[in-house]
Amino acid sequence: MQTNIEQVTNIIRAMPLEDLDELSEVIAAEKQAKREKKEKLNWRLERYKKARKWLDEHEAEYMNKWVCLEGDKLIAVDDDGRTVYQTAKDAGIEIPFIHHIVDESVPFGGW
Predict the structure, then answer these.
(1) d(Cα 102, Cα 93) in Å, to the nearest integer?
(2) Count of C-beta atoms within a 10 Å radius of residue 71
(3) Residue 15 domain-assigned?
(4) What is the mean pLDDT of the chain?
(5) What domain count does the chain have?
(6) In this structure, is residue 21 part of a structural domain?
């Protein structure tokens, strides 16, 4: 059974004042957590868009290399992806954006 807003409202009206104060704190904390989650998601999306733009503009310079980007800032570049990853982690990047730049214009010639 799903609770609707009318049922919640009736429960709130029946609550003692002390419980309403506690409920207000819970609601404020929940709103703040949702705002922070949305902001973090927007930050990640903007970070990805900047990285994608950087890749579009610089892929020829770094062909066949592994790169780590923080938005539009190049953090590390190397032939080895593990080295790039470790450099990013050492720089304090929690979730590094790492990309192997390859020429995708060449068609795949498989079986």
Answers:
(1) 24
(2) 15
(3) yes
(4) 92
(5) 1
(6) yes
